[in-house]
Amino acid sequence: MNQSGGPAGGDLTGARLLLRRIRTVMARNLPAQRRLDEIARTIAGAMVAEVCSIYVLRAGEVLELFATEGLKAEAVHLTRLRVGEGLVGDIASHARPLALADAQHHPQFAYRPETGEELFQSFMGVPVLRGGRVLGVLVVQNKTRRHYTEEEVETLETVAMVVAELVAGGELVGREELSPVTGIGVLPERLEAQVLAPGLALGIAVLHQPDITLTQLVAEDPLKEIERLDDAMSAMKLALDELLEQQDGTGGGEHREVLDTYRMLAEDRGWANRIIEAIETGLTAEAAVQKVQNDMRARMREIQDPYLRERLADLEDLGNRLQRHLLGQQELPHARDLPDAAIIVARNMGPAELLDYDRQRLKGVVLEEGTASSHVAIVARALDVPLLGHCAGLMDKVQAGDSLVLDGDNDQVFLRPSEDILQVFASSMRARALRQEAYVADRDLPAITLDGVAINLMINAGLLIDVPQLAATGAAGIGLFRTEVTFMVAHTFPDVARQREVYGRVLDGAGGRPVVFRTLDIGSDKVLPYWHRDAEENPAMGWRALRISLDRPAMLRQQLRAMIRAAGGRDLHVMFPMVALVDEFDDAKQILDLELQRARDKGQELPVGVRVGAMFEVPALYWQMEEIFRRADFVSVGSNDLAQFVFAADRGNAQLQGRYDPLSPAFLRLVGDIVRAGQACSKPVSLCGEMAGDALEAMALLALGLRSLSMAPPSIGPIRAMIRSLDLGRLQAHMAALGQQRGPDMRSSLRAFARDHGVALS
Ligand code: PEP
Ligand code: MG
Questions:
Q1: Which residues form a coiled coil (predicted)?
Q2: Do 50 and 127 form a contact (C-beta atoms < 8 A)?
Q3: pLDDT tens digit string along 229-252?
Q4: Fewer Cβ neighbours under 10 Å: the N or C end of the chain?
Q5: Across all residues in the chain, what is the average pLDDT?
Q6: In the structure, which protein residues have their CB atom closer than 6 angstroms to any atom of ligand 1?
């Protein structure tokens, strides 16, 4: 019960009673404005509030007072607030409720004399939400100081759903105004995005979230609704099982694991209970699902934790599915009826939703949210569907039927591109397809320069599904297996048995070709969803990689144990990331030696040969080069991290991208020194950062003396073509001459060399 003892606000019966009254209003054949007025009056009466006001969002991000009971009538259609302005604007901009006993002293309070609201002390408002979008704000106010209860906020939220349907009906404001950006759908635009699954795509926008229109929001008989919910839940789970079964055989174990975790969420009692609670307030089952989804979306806005965000995104996916079952629609209505080249556009998406779409016609996906570790991204990579995420403003700017270009090479999306851009992309995609065919045809050709220098080309991998790329590209092995990826896609720490299975399957898939397993490199941008850690000021330079492994040796021991078991009877290559001090390398190697001894004592089959390497990523290692080369069996330069530390430039910061060139004399000198130090100690040096996969940069690396490069699989073909067209001796002479000049522009001059000497730079 609330403090003022209102009969209808606090308990479930009250909420139900209020909904019933509102249903009577909705059933009357009245113009929308009259209905809105009636609704305001009914809410005020039922919630014992002196004021109930309804603000509707108009074009230009303005909230207009559309109906009020209790404020001055002349303020209707006159009082307008910007989104973000005053308490009402604050609710709209954050899409979250606000309940204040003393509203006038709140810093956001904006006084509007025409309303006469100075009389009212307490204030409760909720957003009017539909499909994740704010359509308005619903407010009640009281003269006296009143502490609104959580139940009252909930009741108001429930009623706001009815108001949302009334607003979306298009009678109060035109439907075109309900799209928040004016001028939508006319001009071409370029949006920045982040590549979550690589590739290029060209097609027609299909909005993922079909607008589900709920005609029945209020129900008389909660028991009947709960029964409907149970039936729909069972039907949904059955359909999900069928869908997931069809996926067997697609991709590797991680992709399966993601889908299984998602399936488990359908059994989540908490979720089902929240829907039942909403039904008990008087909503139909489908409206109750929508209510829980609205709440969840509001929570999503506040939550930073990637694990929780992921779970909420998955639950949203399940909620949509459940609603379709309640409404008698089996699947996404348009999922099997796509245009020939469809690009799905969504705020976010669960992993199974992607599977609903017709794979033949689905060319790409773009999400307003989404991160590289999101479940949908993992599934997209497994299915080889280009996916761009983190695309701010997407949902406000795209309309169904717009043409779209996803440019995964340059982290951008073109909206309604001009004919010129479309043609450029179409021809570059054709050329790319042709080149890919040529690379496949050349995959068995040796990577040898024109003057006879053989180069070892390896791939970087992180998932089991990457391993077949060895055969597809003809690479010599896996130069970097990022073991943390297995940890990132799991929902708990993989135990020794699970890790052993993964490493064993990687070695099986490699079929005798070397695989360099890098021990866990978590921290920085690589987040384990189930491991909650304190936020760090500078995570890239924080508690990550080998530092964590040495501070939590049990984790490292387990990982090494799994590797030793998986490699029994075969070669084992282990590499430690982010070594800053040789002592760290010694400590990690000692743990490995102890594990080997343990395996020996237990009579297990040991790896045939064990090679232990260090990643050269921290500049401090430059002054310990002799020591590290004496200790390690090999060194791999992690140029991504090394460059970020050398230039003090965050590798993930888009603003700094391209500002510091790894082809600058300073960085090349550093890499050259590392290579020479390795040669002096007769220890192999490789490079596994992004540079290795860029034809021009890789060409420079060869001139510095590198003979082994590890890269993303799609780069193997182009790099092999570059090598086979290069006279390395000539390039080295050219670079030596450049070294005599002051401040040469290495990039332009190397590009000119390639052009003049017919080096294939794709
Ligand atoms: C690197 O830093 O260059 C590297 C290969 O490691 P990662 O990109 O995984 O940090
Ligand atoms: Mg690194």
A1: none
A2: no
A3: 999 999 988 888 887 777 654 445
A4: N
A5: 87
A6: 480, 482, 521, 617, 638-641, 688-689
